[in-house]
Write a structure and sequence with these properties.
The chain has eight helices and three strands. By secondary structure, it is mainly alpha-helical.
Amino acid sequence: MAQDQSPEWTEELIHSMPAWTLVQTYHAVAHRFRQLFEELGLTPTQFGVLGQLAVAPGLIQSELARRVLVRPQSIAVIITALEDRGLLTQTGPGGRGRARIVSITDAGRALLDVAIPRLVAFNSPESLGLTEDEQATLNRLLHKMNASFSTAQDDRSSARAAGDRR
């Protein structure tokens, strides 16, 4: 039985792979995001936490972790750092198996008020090197890819859970 032959690794092949281009673009965008938020004393993930709490007040840690795409174990460190700065609060008993509600403070909202115009400017078509139509198309396609990967992940998680029940 003959094995499938791999295509030759060329510049043309590299430039034809959208997922690889996305990874390369991610690194450039992540660098600029870090610079943008560093001026405010935040990481991009910390900004994501504040942003999620602004639109969905009173989340529990596990839901917040899902929304900002970090592990539940990692969110506790992020929350503590933001709480120490007075940007959010936690209420509830806490402890193993006991949820704590996380909320943004007025200071956290004030910091968002400074960050949001910078983020909007960063996402402008001109800043991204795109036209308005290209920006809209790119955003739509990225959301489509994200949904596709999220669905695939959910399917794998469901299959693992079904296997665990057997």
